[in-house]
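tokens incoming
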């Protein structure tokens, strides 16, 4: 937000833009890569949450989908084929979201990387 010049906002005010128009038509498109990067990383962190789900949730209906891998683990043996199939299925939404927003994520991550 600090990298957006104040002159852009001032010129929008001079042109008669309201505060909502300035935010949603000027500021929001300029900060979209950063917002998308934050949203996708937050989604991935929440999607892959395991420790909190296993600690605080007692009902199986409230647990996250990645937690379902543990349903295929036995006391003395495990069904590794089923476990890996569930792991692949639970990673598909994260891969799809990353593929959709790949360009925005790349812009958001590299926005502050250039010095000069």
């Amino acid at each position: 937000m600090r990298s957006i010049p104040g002159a852009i906002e001032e010129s929008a005010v001079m042109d008669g833009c309201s505060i909502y128009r300035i935010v949603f038509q000027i500021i929001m498109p300029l900060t979209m890569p950063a917002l998308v990067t934050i949203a996708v990383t937050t989604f991935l962190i929440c999607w892959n949450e395991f420790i909190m789900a296993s600690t605080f949730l007692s009902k199986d209906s409230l647990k996250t989908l990645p937690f379902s891998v543990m349903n295929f683990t036995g006391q003395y043996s495990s069904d590794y084929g089923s476990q890996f199939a569930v792991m692949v299925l639970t990673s598909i939404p994260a891969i799809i979201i990353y593929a959709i927003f790949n360009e925005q994520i790349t812009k958001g991550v590299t926005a502050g990387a250039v010095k000069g």
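note: The chain has a mean pLDDT of 81.
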